[in-house]
Amino acid sequence: MRIILKPAGAVTILLAFFLITAVAVRRQTADAGTLPNREALPAAAASGNLLADSDINSTAWGMIKTAGAAHAEPAPGPNADLPDARRFVVTLPSTTGSWDIQCYQSLQRPLKRGSHIRLTFWARSPQHCPLAAVIEQVNEPHARYMAKDFVLSPQWQQYVVDAVQNADVPSDLAKLDLQLAQKAGTIDIAGVSLRAITPS
């Protein structure tokens, strides 16, 4: 049995084929860009960072001032890979605790008890200001899951903290604080990263 297509029939079949192919490609592209929670994670979180954004000038970072006085402004970063930093100028330190002036960001993923995490950031302070890096509960009683104190160098330096989680931490109940309220002075911060790591 032979099937002979007339020119009009062949054109119709070709048009139908191209239409079906275009719809399939469009659907496949849309499916690839859809995550189960219907919201795409920011680039930093998608790459394994427990923070939504390592850029401390982004809107993912907030600032709390409950005592003392301070303001923040953009500043040049430590190197070509990190050209931008955030400058925190503490004009009046707190007499109650480092937490009274802090920049913070909520965690994007839960942490499990016993998991290993690594915090890295760049910082400097001409006045050798102290900085406390803390992972804690968002709400009272602000239980701490990790805490490390630093005295910053006047030159740019990358600081690293390795820790083991002491409790299960839901992503919506914990935040990373960089607490700055202990001394008057200037603190520049850039390139903050918090990641789960495999111990060596």
Structure description:
The chain has 200 residues and is an alpha+beta fold. It has 2 domains: 1-34, no CATH class; 43-197, Jelly Rolls (Sandwich), CATH 2.60.120. Helices cover 15% and strands 42% of the residues. The chain contains 2 helices and 10 strands. Strands 1-4-9-6-7 form a 5-stranded antiparallel beta sheet, with no helix packed on it. A 5-stranded antiparallel beta sheet has the order 2-3-10-5-8, with no helix packed on it. The protein is globular, with a radius of gyration of 25 Å. Residues 10-46 have low confidence and may be disordered.
Question: In brief, what are we looking at here?
Answer:
By secondary structure, this protein is α+β, with helices and mostly antiparallel strands. Helices cover 15% and strands 42% of the residues.
Topology at a glance:
Blueprint: H1 7-32, H2 43-46, E1 62-65, E2 69-79, E3 82-92, E4 101-106, E5 116-124, E6 130-137, E7 144-151, E8 157-164, E9 174-179, E10 185-197
Antiparallel strand pairs: 1-4, 2-3, 3-10, 4-9, 5-8, 5-10, 6-7, 6-9
